[in-house]
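A common beginner's mistake is to predict each chain separately and then try to dock the pieces by hand. The better habit, illustrated here, is to supply every component at once so that their relative placement is modeled jointly.
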Amino acid sequence: MSRHRFENVARRWRPWLLAVLLLLGAAPGRGAPLVPPELSKGEILRLGERMYREGILPSGQSMPAFIRGDVEVDSSAFSCSSCHLRAGLGSFEGGVVTPPTTGVKLYQPYRRPPSLNDVADQAGRFVYAKTVIERPAYHRESLASSLRFGVDPAGQIFNDVMPRYPLGERDMSILIDYLEELSSKPSPGADSSEFRFATIITGDVSTEDRQALLAPLKSFIDQKNQQLAMYNDFLKFGYSPTVEMKFAFRRASLEIWELKGAPESWPGQLAAYYDKNPVFAVLGGISNGDWRPIHDFCEARRLPCLFPITDFPVVSETGWYTYYFNKGYFQEGDAVARYLGRLESLPTEASVLQIVQDSPAGSALAAGFLKGWGEIERSGVTTVRLTASQLADRDALARLITEHRPGVLLIWSGAELLPDLPALVAKLSPQAMLFLSSSYLGRQAGRVPESVRDRVYLSYPYRLTPFVGAKDGGFDAKVPILASAKQFGERRITSRTTAMLRQATLRGLNLLYDNLYRDHLFDVMSMQMDLTVPDYERFSFGPGQRYVSKGCYIIQLGPGAEPALMPRSEWVIH
Amino acid sequence: MLRPFHALAASLLIALISTTLPTATAHAEAKKYKRSVERYSIPDVVLINQDGKKVRIASLLQSDQPVIVDFIYGTCTTICPVLSAGFVNLQRRLGPASRNVRLVSITIDPEHDSPKVLKEYLKRYRAQPGWDFLTGSRADIDAVMKAFNAYIPDKMSHYPINLIRVPKDGSWVRIFGLLSSREFLEEYQRAVAPPVSGGRP
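With all components supplied together, the output reads:
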């Protein structure tokens, strides 16, 4: 028998062999109590969490699993939480209902009314979107058996997409201990009658920006409370609420957490606010500086922070508890890199000179550019950091450009440089391109001298296509809202906060029903459909995705005092 | 006479079969997918693969090799992992012959799925060479989905589809639903089988 054939045979029989070995190990215990291993509770939960979220066994190996009878899957790519989600309350996606997997839910009997969808197929398509109509409560041993063999306590076979896990006794016990603990206690800051929220405002925010944030927030809270009053009136008149209605109305309150002084002192101030009155989530917020101290606090306290107004979000692939609109300045720098990477007219050996004003905005733009440039495996970037006063020395700047002769010049600075752009562009070779950040230029971005507008490109992270709707995210506007140069420098605090409250957040809160877990809020928000909003082309969600607007245009300016914004790229550039 | 260990193993094997065989039998009796043979006109659009390289989709799909296409996305729960497990298991079952079949996953979340995300996804599934994952502009991906009569306006409402191109006549076997790896292999082999006079794919 050839080695390949042997491997094929071995692979075909592996599920059976594994199952036999498992039974040899587990058979005496199938009807016996599943005894927790002799580990501390904390260690059991840590190991169980890793099994649930990452598909990694306590031994460090991947959890073995099989779907559709014989499809072997690697649980490190296909963990429990990828379908049942982090809070364990399940999901509905791709036409598949994934039921809750927490001990609280599993150890209760389940029953639902029959549905028209309780058929094998509909219009020629197999129907996956259904759960069993009824099952008795699980207990530890029946749950272990179900996870291994895919049959529930009533003898009903699990959906094909649910893997079967041939786990040994010890590993199974650890996983079940974790499921029993998962989402077993409601999160602080919410109960059956109330949601408590806070918003965060740092000391560097102007009175005008503060009002721009608080107006939509207070309106949102007032509206929630007004709706509750109306709902209570309906109940008095004998109205019978649906399940959705029953959980949609709760009293809401908003605290304003003001942060003063140095950012190093913010964690202490946040802790004092939180310990005095824990809230369920932070709605919005605003700062002109780095959001990191607040981000880190929310991660440590597992406190949701929903869409703060910041140009300096934490750019992370693992952050969980803060939803951001986008990656701020970083995203603009990254978009410029990707645009250049796709530009067929740009020689691959073209040198890039990146002149960076020594400021948080300049640093974030430069970091984004370098990250994007590295991801497309390009090199040849010279980065020069200059203070504002060094940037004001136009002769020195011109010498720098002459010395480097870049094919691409990036200047990440404020608008003070704009009047001198013609002199700087004159030092560039005829084919060279100059890139600036519209956000960093702010209100002056439309003032790029006309003589060089054909050489200058701007990163622009907002919507360019007409928004066919109202500013509050509804669709009742008579005239489409058009992007214009007048909007340069607008922080869009009210419109963005309104969109996040009325479109993204409200939907998430309503879908919690009585599952008042913060992780579940992220689970349901991440599973929502894409949204069309006034300021961005699209909000898109997905498990683990935390930056909902992924795009940034590269534009050029048309002629005149109020120039047209002319896109030179797609919204999202790969 | 069986030794005690063998007797125990035998009895456990019987217990195993009695526990699991109904599932296997049920799968064998009732296929839980819909199969049809279709013809599609592939749009002339350029997508981007996991290495950041531009790929003309019509050239990629209309090759002499067997091609299998699905629509998934990088952070998908539930059915994408199952579809991808099907791809990786097909590659395993085919062994070295897997180089003869081109597997093409196309993202339905192009906003998020950069080449980096695609590459990490393939690595996570231990994909072998021959499995490409493509992204691109939303308009181009919509055009591809529409061409396959698989347009999904929003990724949260997608459904499981595999499309197997029959090399001998350019038709496509459209499979709606989830396949076991045995069923997937059988459908693949049926599609790429040499022509039989009067036979249908």
